[in-house]
From TrEMBL:
Domain CBS: 195-254, 257-314
Record-given protein name: CBS domain-containing protein
Taxonomic lineage of the native organism: Bacteria, Bacillati, Bacillota, Bacilli, Bacillales
Pfam families recorded: 4HBT (PF03061), CBS (PF00571), DRTGG (PF07085)
Keywords linked to the UniProt accession: CBS domain
Organism: Tumebacillus flagellatus
Keyword ATP-binding set for record: no
Top-level taxon: Bacteria
Amino acid sequence: MTTKHEQILFYIESLEVGSKISVRQIAKAMDVSEGTAYRAIKDAEARGIVSTIERVGTVRIEKQEKKNIERLTFAEVVNIVEGTVLGGREGLHKTLSKFVIGAMKIDAMLKYVDRDSLLIVGNRESVHQASLEHGAAVLITGGFDTSEEVKELADSLALPLISSAYDTFTIATLINRAIDDRLIKKEILLVEDLVNREKEPPVTLQVGDTVGDWQRLMEQTGHTRFPIVDPEGRVHGIVTSKDVAGVPGEQTLERVMTKSPRTVTGRTSVASAAHTMVWEGIELLPVVEHRKLVGVISRQDVLRALQYNQNQPQGQTIQDLILSGFEEVREDRSVRLSGTVTPIMTNQLGSINPGVLMTLINEAGELAIRRLKNSDMVVENVTVYFLKPIQIDSQVTILADVIDIGRKFGKVDVEIYSGSDLMGKALFTAQVLER
């Protein structure tokens, strides 16, 4: 039996894209409290099927596929530029394919404007109208307004007409930054990328099945680990060959299974799932949605995905910016990173940010272990003994020396120098994912 929360989510998903949603409306339609409706709407927003826009409200939007995640909706643009919607609210759920800066004569400008694009322009009413007629939305800079005729045209075409107090350069920078953030998210592997829901559902056993049922299913599939679910599809446990070893065939699995096992959702990152599996010694993780089983991932699935992702082009993250100015030197059992403290790496006092130092410690530790074991790994612990302030423009050297290495772990002693002065010391420990 589905819960009220799940019923509300199903109801929201059934609404047409572009529909406005409110807590009061949902509470009345589903006969629930406003608190329950509010929590469900926030969950729907986290799942990417609704978006909340200031001074407009909450709107049902099309959930973006991961391959198109870098494309922003006009609703998101409104939030990014802190804009006001002057017209065309019905089109806020649409995605923009590109944006064009209107800093030229109208005839030349319209050569670059096409359907689903966004024209960023100042107080030029004729340009606003021409852009809408060409199928493009308009973002007016400087906080300017436009005529009622243009607003009515935007409404009739369902093309957003937005005004923002920011200047053109600031708006372009904000939108570019948002797109770059989306590209980075696109490169982060999620569990849902590993679960193909178009295939047959995962093989399971039911609550009430016996060890004999496990034996027959094991012979049919060749697998030894299975989720235990109830008739509603909710996960109650996991059973493995270790659990049933030496147990009579008539014994129910409820007596021997691992109850309330760890689960993940499709939005969990593969790196987080890998850490959970290594940390807790788990070989199989159930994947749930609305608390119901939708798939399973194995440790082998996670390793293959992480190894594949390492070979793909990556966007520029804060970590990339930090490490771009450092050179790596490898020795027998150690790694040395050398570079300069740049302004982006400092705090308000002009010394290196502790978070930046932690990034350098982690990178040096991983490189040192990977020098001896070419495997993926997850950080288990970083113990920092002391850190001293290092000023901007100082030369920094991070020396990572492997002090212990095993089949499934590695320990690294990390020292941080500025010139010949020891400025920090840490112990880095990681669990190695066997291939």
